[in-house]
Amino acid sequence: MNFSNNDERTAMIVSINSIIANLVLSVAKLFAGYIAHSAAMISDGIHSASDVLSTLVVMAGVRYANKASDKEHQYGHERMECIAAIILATMLTMIALVIGYSGYEKIFNETTTELVVPGQLALWAAIASIVIKEAMYWYTRNAAIKINSGALMADAWHHRSDALSSIGSFVGILGARMGYPVLDPVASIIICLMILHASYEVFTDAMYKMVDHSCDDKTTQELVDLICRVPGVEHVDSITTRIFGNRIYVDVEISVDDMLPLIKAHHIAETTHAALEANFPLVKHCMVHVNPMSESDHEIAIELPEELKPRK
Fold it and tell me: What is the mean pLDDT of residues 146-170?
């Protein structure tokens, strides 16, 4: 099951709002950092500017993941969201290293004779950034949960990392204004470490979704309980699940009365299929195999006819 049109529209609206807010915020931060001579605030402004690029990546990932299945991609394009999140994590890492190196240069470069004390404007810019970016985090996070979007959730954590980096900027700028100017570039290094942590979280979550794995025990049991309530299902013989991107695929074997006509057994299987997809929105596809009840607990040796055996 792909995003509904409303879900995709929600993701696009949230992303566009994020781009507008980050453009305004990054310009304001860079201006404040330049005027107030704050390396930490300039680093923070670069981080906010990177949010614009990351949101564009998210928008592309969500749009492509929502494409309908086609001949070349018969299981859909959901994993494009994971790829978008991995690209975002890579961008975050590169930006973090640039910011960290800049701070390192200002502290340890032998040609640096004096560290400039940042002005008060940088301090107020840091406070404003903390409030705005934390609000953007919750705004984006709520939308990501609502439409179950991993890429949008990654973008939410990008906002949170920016809020945390602004806290680092605030502490560094405040410390510098209190007589410890070295704390301003030190804040850049702290920001670097915070962004690296955020990129690691985004990357590991995306890789977890890229590699097929089963549902948790609670979800699996809920699936079994629902199947057992389908009229005509005598027993659930086996069930396997795998998560593809952020969607669930289910393979289940059920037992029915041996004496049922094929058409009725087929109807039970179709009802099971429909019930799973109706009650579990994340289930994109399920395959239901029907077994006769009397043979459900026994292995049946299959002897292939001569015409079906592989040729030597």
Answer: 77
Domain spans, the chain: 5-210, 217-295
Q: Tell me what pLDDT residue 10 has.
A: 82
Give residue 209's identity as a one-letter amino acid code: K
Report the CATH fold assignment for 5-210.
Answer: Alpha-lytic protease prodomain-like (1.20.1510)
- Average pLDDT value for residue range 147-157: 76
Token reading at 4: 């509904």
For the segment 87-105, the average pLDDT, to the nearest whole number, is 80
- The full DSSP string for the chain is ----HHHHHHHHHHHHHHHHHHHHHHHHHHHHHHHTT-HHHHHHHHHHHHHHHHHHHHHHHHHHHTSPP-SS-TT-STTHHHHHHHHHHHHHHHHHHHHHHHHHHHHH-TT---PPPPPHHHHHHHHHHHHHHHHHHHHHHHHHHHHT-HHHHHHHHHHHHHHHHHHHHHHHHHHHHTT-TTHHHHHHHHHHHHHHHHHHHHHHHHHHHHS--PPPHHHHHHHHHHHHTSTT--EEEEEEEEEETTEEEEEEEEEE-TTS-HHHHHHHHHHHHHHHHHH-TTEEEEEEEEEEGGGTTS-------GGGSPP-
What is the pLDDT, as a whole number, of residue 290? 92
Q: Look up residue 276 and give its two tokens.
A: 């799973």
Nearest CA to 202 among 307, 300, 90, 53? 90
Instruction: Return the CATH architecture of domain 217-295.
Output: 2-Layer Sandwich (3.30)
5-210 and 217-295 in the same fold: no
pLDDT tens, position by position, 27-50: 988 888 888 888 778 877 877 777
% of the chain beyond a pLDDT of 90: 15
Proportion of the chain above pLDDT 70, given as a percent:
85
Residues 6+ away with beta carbon under 8 Å from 8: 62, 63, 66
